[in-house]
Specification:
With 228 residues, the protein is an alpha+beta fold. It has one domain. It contains four helices and eight strands; from the N terminus they run αβββαββαβββα. Strands 6-3-5-4-8 form a five-stranded antiparallel β-sheet. Strands 1-2-7 form a three-stranded antiparallel β-sheet. Helix 3 packs across helix 4. The longest helix has 26 residues. About 11% of the residues have low confidence.
Amino acid sequence: MARPSPDRRPSSRRCAPPAPGAVPTPRRPLERPLPLVGRARQWYEKELGWATAPGEPVRLVTGLRFDVLDVPAEAGLPALRHLGPASPVALCGERMRLLVAAGSSEELPGLLDWLEWGSLDLDLTATGAGGHIEAPLPPGWATSPVPPGPAGTPGPRPLPPGGDDSQGAAVWLRPPEPGCEVELLLPTVSAVGGVGGAPDLVRLVDTVATECHRLRLLRACAQALAFS
């Protein structure tokens, strides 16, 4: 009598689960820290609420919350007395950039004419609606390690002197403060005869125009002596 063949169907029994710790639990991929340019852009947009232009380096859009007076640094220093201590001022090489109230660039030609500076070729310009300026590194970033990335990523590293990770030569002489309404701190024409604490744009422009003219005369004299 033939013996029955064994049942070769797969067993319906389930495998026992692996012992705890035998298989590592899935890990979330490490988040790559933003490059310095990305962190600087994030600081301006999130901490200050300032608009930035696309591309690199980071550029601040003017004409929305502020305009910018661009003058020689030597001419701008005497004008700092007309600004409040929290009024932002930047340096870029030998140029000083004074943040003023939005719309001031449109007022500048009329102010210079009224102050009797309009007929002179002064080294004084203003950037307003539709323009932008190079964004200085956020305060402290140029002289100390940059902020660390997310948890699990490499810690802070020193700021390189140049290259793709550098924002260039622009630095804050008087940096903006997160949480402050910058519009209330900036020089404006409406400060004349007003009761607010905003600095007076007229006095500021008169001072920088006077200093620009003084520098212009000094350079003309130096050039004349050089060719004499």
